[in-house]
Amino acid sequence: MAANTNLAEMSPKELESLAAQAKQAAAPSATKILWREFKADRPALISLIIVVVFILFVMISPLFIDSEKMMTTNILAYLTPPLQDNFLLGADANGRSIAMQLIVGSRNSIGIAIGLTIISSTIGIAWGLVSGYFGGYIDWGMQRFYDFMMMLPMTMMIIVLVTIIDDYNAVTLTLIFSLFYWMGTSRLIRSRTLAETKKDYVSASITSGTKSWKIIFREIMPNISSLIIVDTTLSFAENIGVETGLSYLGFGLPSRTPSLGTLIANANDPNNITQYWWTWLPAAIEIIVLCLAISYIGQVVSRAANASQRRVNK
Amino acid sequence: MWKTILRRVLIMIPEVILLSILVFLLAKSMPGDPFTGSINPRSSATQIEHLKQINGLYDPWYQQYWNWVVHLFHGDLGQSYQYHEPVTNLIGDRAINTLWLSAFTMVLTYALALPLGLYAGKHEGKLPDTVIRIYTYVTYCIPFFVILVIGLWVFGYVLNWFPTTGSVSPTASGIGMIGSRFLHVLLPGLLGALFGTVNIVQYMRSEVIDAKHSDYVRTARSKGVPRKDIYKHHIFRNSLLPIAAFGGYSITGLLNGSIFTETIFSYPGMGMLFIDSISYRDYTVITALVLLFGILNLLGTLLSDIILSIVDPRIRIN
């Protein structure tokens, strides 16, 4: 085979074997690495399955729940304990089923967390890439804006904005949150972009006249994609805490719309927190388990992204 | 050195001005006006109009903003119409409570995180390091307010070890008052410390690991300094100042957290004052608090940057 270097003279069989060799020598694709890493780590695989099945469950099952009926006050069921009268997790002070509110609330909270992660990560990644790539005055200006955003007391600003906007819904709420949660990502991406911009392939592209946006989004971005995936997974776990925290304080979703945060807010009543634990504890435990599982997945993803830390290195 | 500090302070000024404009405009766009709450049933619409007129509520926004700034520089933040008290007095009382709780939390956090970070770095890659990493990671990813609620339930209500509301018990006096104050911040402080160590532990750990492989440690080792003394006198001392710089940055986190901590523990500090003022639409207090928190964030960052630039000459910009 070594003697035959001219491609045109090769037989199809030889070409095929060459292609197979090249495929073997090439680095495995990102999804393949991830899959191998998850297969090697049983707890991670279990967390992944739990999270995916749970998210699918809370996204699909609310379609079969009549939310009008669910949120109707039913005095007869006042604070029914769990496992009584068809109430799996009991009922709250208005006689509304906790289990159903938990399902619909999870959908709302996770939905907002997903939306927030997508929007804020997109802003953060674009901001960091542009700032890090261009440097100079553009970087300086963008970093001053970053400093200014970091100075704002986030929780207070969100609460003030929610108070000003009277008629808000899940979408406006997600947008308001996104305004204040892109900075961490942008800082991370910027520092990696700064290092990446100094590499030879970028200089080569600049010299050969490739357009800036193409270098940024088609060349640098794929090269830091592992960092982006890790950061997005971890911020998803964090973002679950953002909406639930504000809903808990009463400035997230309106109180008629169940969310994990409004469910935990049942604990604000001293009677609920001591005697009627089922009104708030399930939601609290759900948040803890969900955040732990997602962050654990994030850890595995970040391990897969770093070749020296992988468990499976073949 | 001084040049760096001066430069940092100069950059701050436009930021503060921008913040004040933003806060002012936000307060202006809130529903209602400062007289909504103090309207006497007998006051007529024309009287209110007159009040608004003489208080300049119909002036263009930049003129109102300018008046507000002038008052601000005279230390006059306006009058809270819910409490009928000058905002400065109102915040002053609450600020001491918040300061007390935050300082306590910070001291506990450092007391817990420094030894853990040092220990983890010392035993890099071994069992203690893994255990500490799992601890920091678990505490980091659970939303803090959930922990506070569960902590209040378990230790405050079920076990009844700690008071569940307020900053001091109403019956305490003299020495007992100090004890009572301490008891009231103990649970939120402990929870805050236990669940807020991640940054300091990780930073300390990486400092120690860096130092372990540095030339000065190798020199000390070859001179025959015992390993224990190297950690105590060389590595720990060298990492202390950059770690101290973290204090400034953590102000942001503490202030943000104070809104949740104080609401959950009904602790009368600035965070709870903010939530109360929002529900009563007490705009003068809201504006003052947002501005104050923003400036405190800025000062915290400034402090950290200055400490870091003293420690590490590379950070100083020419």
TrEMBL record, chain A:
Compartments in which it is found: Cell membrane
Lineage, top ranks: Bacteria, Bacillati, Bacillota, Bacilli, Lactobacillales
Topology with respect to the bilayer: Multi-pass membrane protein
Gene3D superfamilies for the chain: MetI-like (1.10.3720.10)
Protein source organism: Weissella hellenica
Chain segments annotated as transmembrane: 44-65, 110-133, 145-165, 171-189, 220-237, 277-301
Name of the protein: ABC transporter permease
Signal peptide: none
GO cellular component, one term: plasma membrane
Ranges where the ABC transmembrane type-1 domain occurs: 106-298
Keywords, sorted A to Z: Cell membrane, Membrane, Transmembrane, Transmembrane helix, Transport
From TrEMBL, chain B:
GO biological processes: transmembrane transport
Keyword presence, Cell membrane: yes
Similarity-based family: Belongs to the binding-protein-dependent transport system permease family.
Annotated protein name in UniProt: ABC transporter permease
Chief place where the protein resides: membrane
Cross-referenced Pfam families: BPD_transp_1, BPD_transp_1_N
Highest taxon above the source species: Bacteria
Topological category with respect to the lipid bilayer: Multi-pass membrane protein
Sorted UniProt keywords: Cell membrane, Membrane, Transmembrane, Transmembrane helix, Transport
Entry's localization field: Cell membrane
